[in-house]
């Protein structure tokens, strides 16, 4: 396929662009393989530089000799283009539709984007699981790094390396994998060094109607708990839904086969027990819960670097199907059953945490918004594909740039930092009362809410805090400048 | 003290409404002014103080296994749920609180017994702190068109107005007196705020006694005088803040609203803000939502929606934005009234002034504003707050709504206010506590931008609030900075003594900088002169305000400005 075949009209003169809260601009509209551009006439400023992948839905309305195209973007922006000429208008609309619906991964923009400031391999191996395991092994010897999935044979949606109980061998693990949906056997997600409890995740067991059992799966979960110790299995589904899943081959862990585990379909409070989390597939709500729990428990996940590592480990490598879930967004009225805003839900939860603990996260709202934007449409390969296996097949890491590499450049990085951050070693227990939950205006009203005064406040905070850290250096700078300033006035006289 | 039969009860439990934490256990004391609960179960001594005048209701609930429950609701939205072991004790506390929380005579109010360690001179200074004449002076009054008159010195014109009022110079004594007979309770049109930049005035009054056809020449002359005091605009607005239906119903009682045909060049407009009874029941519903025990998200959101509270807040803010825009952008004078002109009118006049004038967004200015628009102009604090045992139908959260509107503005314009949420809560508390004498006696924003004010309505449910405060952090940053700079300047002052004078830096004085940094002063552009109106909309772009700041304030220039606005 050639992009040029999809572009029926590449340039339109005299198009009018409407954006919420900004004056209309008239100019030349261009469609390239991946972008929609508009440069204003006569000044020639580039007013619009939109990744076509960002377009969620295209609405067209023709009246008389011109037409209006409404673009509903995945980042929740709504743009309007007024295009002279009915045919031109229809051509532009169908070109945008076609280009935004290209679903071959290798045709996507990250495979073509080559920024001069970055090298391709940069950022891709920034957060190896080995490093996470190193920290873990200094705290406990109950877990080991397994390469049972090195060729993705045990579980196609897991990464090659996973952490499993030290007491079970790879054969057992491989057999247990066959008893779990999609092969997602229980793996370690987080270890809490304070009390030695662990957080695990998996998919549902394939108990089915006949109440099938699997000795290896029982053994795997059995070795995690000491004699007489009790663990919890949090099933993120309702009890009803879990029961129904048996009809289609899924189900839950029966008490009789897993005597040390207690199954729950609700949240629990500060029990200090080991917990296994799963829903059905274990790629959505499961990851949301385990990732959020770590952010609450572990201060190292709350730094900018640590949060990226958490995302890499608990969302990207853990096999959240980004390509399926984020193919379309809120405005799409198609019949896709795979699209779901699970990652947005996670980002919103993180934002709620940041509102309740404004000093405890090293990153700010801007990072969350950038992650949201990039999960849906990106110049970088980080959120492409559904799991590590697909990424390796498409050679994502060899042929695209990593978002992390770009974010962590010094001139970029400072934009995402929270000026008020100070390391907080404690667990940050949020309030979940309805009164404490707010609409995330920064995301949902981003394009329609005037932000000038809020930006001002942010800058003011930055200024105040930096004043503290650099007041001494400012002092010395002031001193150095004063003779020069004095000389200047003399010259003027 | 004669009301207190049991001053101390031990082994009293205080239930936590939200978290399923264990109930506190401790001792309850009754003093002449406060109920004090000391938590004995906590590691650190924890005290809960409830001012008797803050108590709005005391209820005895049915006996539980833990004992006799006593539920106390406060006017500052504190809800305390005690459980007392002995029925007798519970009953004693109950009857004492009933009496203590509802003083019958004004002398029983706390303000008369509150005795901070302050000299008589200081106390009198406090009362003189706010001089409304100074505020009028700030607006350039008296001037050619407006004068401060003591025509009401014997409360002859209007018993609920202050002795000194500001009226147009053109309005003679006969006009004032005549107009007062045509306005409900004699509350004639008086100046609330004059926008110096263009002479547009914000005036307030009560409804006219127009009935179906009555007219009053003096009242018509009064409005004409107000309109002509602003020669820049050929018309003036008359805004009735009530819903049209309510205003029409008043005509049957011989009151009502201005007939456009009888007054020269007025533009009449209704803005539907509901009356005090609707507001009272709305708050009641809101508080029920806030008190629900572990509500689901949709319980909460439906409850919030059904209470209508944010809808009413939006109505008040919309009206205020309309007034401010009329004055600033249309350069038109506005006369506002509701029924008596002391509730809705006070809300919208004070909010519009706050939008127009940055001074009112400072500590001092905000107090002046409250003094001017609420206290001096006769808002019935006593009735509305239920200070004394009186008619429950007179109680209404009019002032609470005003405070909340200010809070909503603070959310949208975080850098425009010198004070913080805490100051608002403090003022709100004092209004209901009668701890000080002041309150004794009688943006076109979209809806979704308005937030539920958890800090007010669930203020005492500690678990619900952000656990870290940005403000505290910033203040500690500032004070640290000041200390550092003081240290630095101290060291610098010592340098010459130790080393002898340095060659090129005779007298750099960081002192000045340090002093400037000591307090978070309001931003420069807000502090002086033609500051921008608080506005978020695209119609009042930043550009325009820069232009107007740069241009000399000539007539030609302003006219251009006005035309540009009309085109936009």
UniProtKB/TrEMBL annotation, chain A:
One of its GO terms (cellular component) is cytoplasm. InterPro entries: Myotubularin (IPR030564), Myotubularin-like_Pase_dom (IPR010569), PH-GRAM_MTMR6-9 (IPR048994), PH-like_dom_sf (IPR011993), Prot-tyrosine_phosphatase-like (IPR029021). GO terms for biological process: negative regulation of autophagy; phosphatidylinositol dephosphorylation. Residues 463-493 are annotated as: Disordered. Signal peptide: none annotated. Pfam families: Myotub-related, PH-GRAM_MTMR6-like. One of its GO terms (molecular function) is protein phosphatase binding. Residues 123-444 form the Myotubularin phosphatase domain. Belongs to the protein-tyrosine phosphatase family. Non-receptor class myotubularin subfamily. PANTHER family: MYOTUBULARIN PHOSPHATASE DOMAIN-CONTAINING PROTEIN, MYOTUBULARIN-RELATED. This is Myotubularin phosphatase domain-containing protein. It comes from Hirundo rustica rustica. The lineage of its organism: Eukaryota, Metazoa, Chordata, Craniata, Vertebrata.
From TrEMBL, chain B:
One of its GO terms (biological process) is phosphatidylinositol dephosphorylation. The active site is at 338 (phosphocysteine intermediate). Substrate binds at residues 275-276, 338-344. PROSITE patterns: PPASE_MYOTUBULARIN, TYR_PHOSPHATASE_1. Residues 126-515 form the Myotubularin phosphatase domain. Residues 558-568 have a biased composition (Basic and acidic residues). GO terms for molecular function: phosphatidylinositol-3,5-bisphosphate phosphatase activity; phosphatidylinositol-3-phosphate phosphatase activity. It holds the Pfam family PH-GRAM_MTMR6-like. One of its GO terms (cellular component) is cytoplasm. SUPFAM superfamilies: (Phosphotyrosine protein) phosphatases II, PH domain-like. Residues 499-568 are annotated as: Disordered. The keyword Hydrolase applies. It comes from the Eukaryota. InterPro entries: MTMR8_PTP, Myotubularin, Myotubularin-like_Pase_dom, PH-GRAM_MTMR6-9, PH-like_dom_sf, Prot-tyrosine_phosphatase-like, Tyr_Pase_AS, Tyr_Pase_cat. Keywords: Hydrolase, Lipid metabolism. Belongs to the protein-tyrosine phosphatase family. Non-receptor class myotubularin subfamily. This is Myotubularin phosphatase domain-containing protein.
């Amino acid at each position: 396929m050639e992009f040029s075949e999809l572009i029926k009209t590449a340039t339109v003169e005299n198009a009018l662009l409407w954006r919420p809260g900004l004056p209309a601009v008239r100019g030349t509209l261009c469609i390239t393989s991946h972008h929609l551009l508009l440069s204003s006439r006569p000044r020639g400023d580039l007013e619009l530089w939109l990744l076509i992948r960002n377009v969620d839905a295209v609405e067209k309305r023709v009246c008389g000799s011109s037409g209006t195209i409404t673009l509903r973007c995945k980042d929740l922006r709504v743009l309007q283009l007024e295009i002279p000429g009915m045919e031109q208008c229809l051509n532009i609309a169908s070109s945008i539709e076609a280009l935004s619906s290209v679903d071959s991964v290798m045709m996507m923009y990250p495979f073509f984007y080559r920024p001069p400031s970055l090298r391709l391999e940069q950022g891709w191996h920034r957060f190896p699981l080995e490093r996470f395991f190193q920290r873990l092994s200094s705290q406990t010897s109950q877990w080991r790094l397994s390469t049972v999935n090195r060729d993705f044979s045990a579980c196609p949606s897991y990464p090659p390396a996973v952490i499993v109980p030290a007491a079970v061998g790879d054969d057992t693990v491989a057999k247990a994998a066959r008893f779990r949906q999609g092969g997602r056997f229980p793996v370690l997600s987080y270890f809490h060094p304070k009390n030695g409890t662990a957080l695990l995740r998996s998919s549902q067991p394939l108990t089915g109607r006949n109440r099938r059992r699997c000795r290896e799966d029982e053994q795997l979960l059995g070795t995690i708990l000491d004699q007489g110790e009790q663990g919890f299995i949090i099933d993120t589904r309702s009890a009803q839904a879990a029961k129904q899943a048996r009809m289609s081959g899924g189900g839950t862990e029966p008490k009789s086969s897993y005597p040390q585990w207690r199954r729950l379909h609700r949240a629990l409070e500060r029990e200090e027990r080991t917990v296994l989390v799963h829903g059905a597939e274990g790629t959505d709500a499961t990851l949301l819960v385990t990732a959020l729990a770590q952010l609450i428990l572990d201060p190292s996940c709350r730094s900018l670097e640590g949060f990226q590592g958490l995302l890499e480990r608990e969302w990207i490598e853990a096999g959240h199907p980004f390509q399926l879930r984020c193919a379309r967004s809120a405005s799409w009225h198609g019949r896709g059953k795979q699209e779901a805003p699970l990652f947005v839900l996670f980002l919103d939860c993180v934002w709620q945490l940041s509102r309740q603990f404004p000093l405890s996260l090293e990153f700010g709202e801007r990072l969350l918004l950038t992650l949201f934007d990039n999960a849906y449409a990106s110049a970088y390969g980080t959120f492409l594909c559904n799991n590590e296996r697909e990424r390796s097949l498409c050679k994502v890491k060899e042929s695209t740039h990593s978002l992390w590499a770009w974010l962590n450049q010094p001139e970029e990085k400072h934009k995402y930092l929270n000026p008020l951050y100070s390391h907080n070693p404690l667990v940050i227990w949020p309030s979940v009362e309805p009164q404490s939950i707010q609409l995330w205006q920064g995301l949902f009203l981003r394009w329609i809410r005037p932000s000038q005064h809020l930006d001002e406040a942010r800058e003011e905070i930055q200024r105040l805090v930096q004043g503290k850290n650099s007041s001494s250096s400012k002092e010395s700078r002031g001193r150095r400048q004063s003779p020069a300033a004095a000389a200047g006035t003399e010259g003027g006289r | 003290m004669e009301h207190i039969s049991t001053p101390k009860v031990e082994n009293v439990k205080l239930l936590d409404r939200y978290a399923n934490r264990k109930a506190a256990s401790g001792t309850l004391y009754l003093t002449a002014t406060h109920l004090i609960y000391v938590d004995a179960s906590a590691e650190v001594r924890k005290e809960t103080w409830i001012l008797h005048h803050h108590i709005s209701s005391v209820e005895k609930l049915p006996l539980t296994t833990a004992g006799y429950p006593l539920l106390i609701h406060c006017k500052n939205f504190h809800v305390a749920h005690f459980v007392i072991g002995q029925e007798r004790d519970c009953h004693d506390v109950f009857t004492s609180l009933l009496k203590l929380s509802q003083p019958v005579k004004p002398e029983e109010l706390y303000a008369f017994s509150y005795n901070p360690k302050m000299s008589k001179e200081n106390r009198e200074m406090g009362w003189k702190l706010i001089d409304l004449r100074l505020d009028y002076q700030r607006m350039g009054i008296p001037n050619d068109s407006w004068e401060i008159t003591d025509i009401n010195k014997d409360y002859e014109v209007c018993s609920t107005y202050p002795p000194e009022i500001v009226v147009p110079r053109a309005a003679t004594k006969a006009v004032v007196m005549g107009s007062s007979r045509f306005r409900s309770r004699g509350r004639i049109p008086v100046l609330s705020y004059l926008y110096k930049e263009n002479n547009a005035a914000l005036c307030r009054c009560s409804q006219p006694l127009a009935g179906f056809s009555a007219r009053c020449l003096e009242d018509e002359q009064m409005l004409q005088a107000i309109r002509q005091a602003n020669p820049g605009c050929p018309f003036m607005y008359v805004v009735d803040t009530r819903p049209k239906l309510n205003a029409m119903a008043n005509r049957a009682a011989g009151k009502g609203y201005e007939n456009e045909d009888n007054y020269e060049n007025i533009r009449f407009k209704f803005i539907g803000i509901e009356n005090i009874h609707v507001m009272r029941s709305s708050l009641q519903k809101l508080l029920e939502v806030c008190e629900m025990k572990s509500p689901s998200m949709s319980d909460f959101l439906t409850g919030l929606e059904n209470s209508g509270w944010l809808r009413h807040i939006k109505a008040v803010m919309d009206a205020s934005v309309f007034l401010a825009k009329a004055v600033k952008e249309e350069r038109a004078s506005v006369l506002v009234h509701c029924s008596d002109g002391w509730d809705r009118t006070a809300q919208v006049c004070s909010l519009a002034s706050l939008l127009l004038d940055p001074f009112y967004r400072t500590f001092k200015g905000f107090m002046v504003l409250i003094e001017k628009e609420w206290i001096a102009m006769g808002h019935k604090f006593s009735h509305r707050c239920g200070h004394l045992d009186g008619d429950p139908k007179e109680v209404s959260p009019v002032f609470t709504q005003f405070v909340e509107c200010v809070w909503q503005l603070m959310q949208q314009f975080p850098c425009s206010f010198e004070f913080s949420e805490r100051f608002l809560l403090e003022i709100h508390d004092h209004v209901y506590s009668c701890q000080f004498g002041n309150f004794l006696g009688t943006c076109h924003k979209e809806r979704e931008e308005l937030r539920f004010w958890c800090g007010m309505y669930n203020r005492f449910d500690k678990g619900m609030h952000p656990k870290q405060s940005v403000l505290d952090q910033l203040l500690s940053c500032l004070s640290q900075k000041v200390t550092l700079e003081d240290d630095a300047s101290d060291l610098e002052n010592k340098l010459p003594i130790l080393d002898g004078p340095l060659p090129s830096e005779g007298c750099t004085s960081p002192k000045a900088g340090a002093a400037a940094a000591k307090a978070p002063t309001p931003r420069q552009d807000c502090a002086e002169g033609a500051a921008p109106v608080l506005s978020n909309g695209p119609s009042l772009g930043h550009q325009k305000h820069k232009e107007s700041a740069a241009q000399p304030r000539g007539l030609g220039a302003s006219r251009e400005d006005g035309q540009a606005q009309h085109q936009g």
